[in-house]
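>> received
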Amino acid sequence: MSLTGLGQMLHHAFIIHALLAGSAIAAVCGLAGYFLVLRGQVFAGDALGHVAYTGAMGALAAGLDLHAGLFATTIAAGVALGAGSARITDDVAIGSFFSWMLGLGVLFLTYYTTHGSGANGTANVNVLFGSIFGINVSATTTAVLLSAGLAVVLIVIGRPLLFATVDPAVAQAVGVPTRWLGAVFLGVVGATVAEASQIIGALLVLGLFAAPAAAAMRLTDRPWRAFWLAPVLAVAAIWVGVTLAYLIPAAPASFTIMITAAAIYLIAAIITRRERTSAQTASSDH
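>> returned
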């Protein structure tokens, strides 16, 4: 692909839609991902990705709208998981819930495949791996508006949520509703997963939650700087990933986006390791 061809990339409507919708979702994933990593709830974010798949398949098997199944199940599951613990949801509880949801998803998939997949035969793959290049104007507008709303919620609850995460005992003692905050936060994560599943896929959304946020936390030890850096890195993963998918037609966009997100974390790890080594060397010289 020549530089001239690359320059034509933004002339395609499907690329514009992919970048707008993808960037909006990535920004929210970065904001939410910071707290998922900080609170040790990355596994919960992964579980909600599988809940999204089960909800979508269940809705289709019942003859309902796929989006209704996505949002209803992920938000309900997120609130339930968040309400179950004031700080960090028990991994055993999540693992048990996760296994049950996977089994239920297989049941719905089997029923949908044998009874109704002819009506929407690509739904299974689209929910699992997303369809970022299949986003139309309506879906793009929905993604941007919904992401903006979710981002506002995260920003509003950000300060008390950080307090409840860093020192939950003191936060609860001074009247911070730690359990309520946890439920709202994972409810927002659930809604983010539901929307992201349609763009990058339920199985891959964890990459946008974890990698940019973890990279941001490596690059700075200041909480709010990392909180704002995480969405910037997540959006960068979308732009680089979409560009690579455009340049390499054989490479799926979800793959290139996830590879870019992983590369961002790797680069951040290398940078911090070199800085730490340099600091140790300078200290030993003195």
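>> The chain has twelve helices and no strands.
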